[in-house]
Specification:
Layout lengths: L1 H13 L1 H31 L2 H14 L3 H37 L10 H12 L5 H13 L4 H28 L4 H40 L8 H19 L1 H19 L6 H39 L3 H28 L1 H9 L4 H11 L2 H17 L4 H25 L2 H26 L4 H28 L9 H25 L2 H6 L4 H7 L2
Length: 529
Amino acid sequence: MTGASFLSKFLGMIYVIPFHHLVGPAGGALFQLGYTPYSIFISLSTIGVPMAVSKFVSKYNSLGDYETGMRMFKAGLALMSITGVLAFLALFFSAEFLAGQMITSDDPDSITVADVTFVIRTVSVALLVIPAMSIARGFFQGHQSFGPTSVSQVIEQIVRIAFVLGGSFVIIRLLSGTVTAAVGFSTFAAFLGALASCAVLYTYWRKRRPYINRQRQQQTYTHDMPTGDLFKELFRYAGPFVFVGLAIPLYQLTDQFTFERAMVAIGQEEIWAEAFATINFYGHKLAIIPVTLATGLSIAAMPALTKSFFANDKTLVAKQINQAFQAILVLIIPAVVGLSLLSHEAYGALYGMENLEITGNLLAWYAPVALFFALFTVSSAVLQGINEQRYAVYSLAAGLLLKVLLNIQLIHMFGAKGAIFGTALAAVTSVVLNLWRIKAAIDFSYKKIFKRTMLVGIFVVIMSAAVLILKLVFGLFIPYEETRWGAIIMLTIGVLGGAFIYLWFAYHSTLLERVLGSRIKVLDRIFGR
């Protein structure tokens, strides 16, 4: 599951490189302006049901009651079909109003209200399919079966990207169409990708149905809950899921309603679109890749953690929580620090060398925020697993309130970086509150996590010094600050050199082995152990 999520996000990062060359910074900003409301409506239309179904099915399967999980799947599927249609109608007809709140400038040479309205309406069609599709993923995950979700997720992304790039190329290069038309078709590709995912899930369902039916026939007891009680329990689980899934889109939506007007107010209207695209689209695609590991781990770990918690196995619960947090810290801290150190090289190599003093600097500041996104995802999953999910809502609300209240002021004080500082402050606040609640609820000790984090920190300092030395030495004869080919070479050298140094220390100290639970055969061969 983690591998599939990572591959999906990696593909989502790679495709924006040619996409950037087709539509430019303004096209990226327009894409994000339309896509963020869609992301929020996806979460609202599913009302957290897919993840809640995963938890619900896992709980009753652990009690030997497979029939109750099947009843919930059928009822949830019907519910998602209805909410998908309602969400589509709501987003389609509110598109012009939302666009008017995001764009205040009437400059015809910039992004207009009509452009944003068009993009929002084209992407809204996907809402007709995705809610019902996602309920099937939750059902399979509740059965501890992650293959259907993993394969369908990757196929969905491949099909979507193929239509995004193919459609944009045809519209702009062959038909000499507008950037707005290309971006509109690109967002419509979400609907086409969802159809491909549905086909994959249906194929899995046909193969797994006989096995699931045998489980139902062999069970000796069912809770025989009324449908109303089924939905009450489901909604009790579902409410927190929707807010947790909305964390990053809500931060981005806050930027969409405040960023342009704040940048115009401080006299930086000429760079607002590029800065916005860097923070919330192009740069975000790079920074979010490590967070995918957190997302995959949290989703995969939650059914098992739920099962251990309801079985009252406190030792196993503590072990699972420890491993989830440590894996995130060991993998993500070096990734975000490395990206921050190589931000100019990464952005220049992938998107071009223009305006790196703006784009590269913004990516350097934004990269570390990914660590707190990951910690929020995992800590929220832990709270859901130990039946404390409502506190994830409280922590997100507290962080989001800070973002809303301070975002404009921070942009006035620090320029475009102020939006990053606002997001960082919000995410840190939410993480701290989540960690406090986990400790209070099950008397969890962070001592082992703290020790491992200190060790990771030492190795990252050594890695950072190595990367800076490599840049200093190779910079004597590689013009990585002026040329794209130089940036590509320097990025490759920095990533490989930094990764080798960090992995060498983490491997020989047995840190990786202790955190991940087993020897890593690939590293055994590399380091000759």
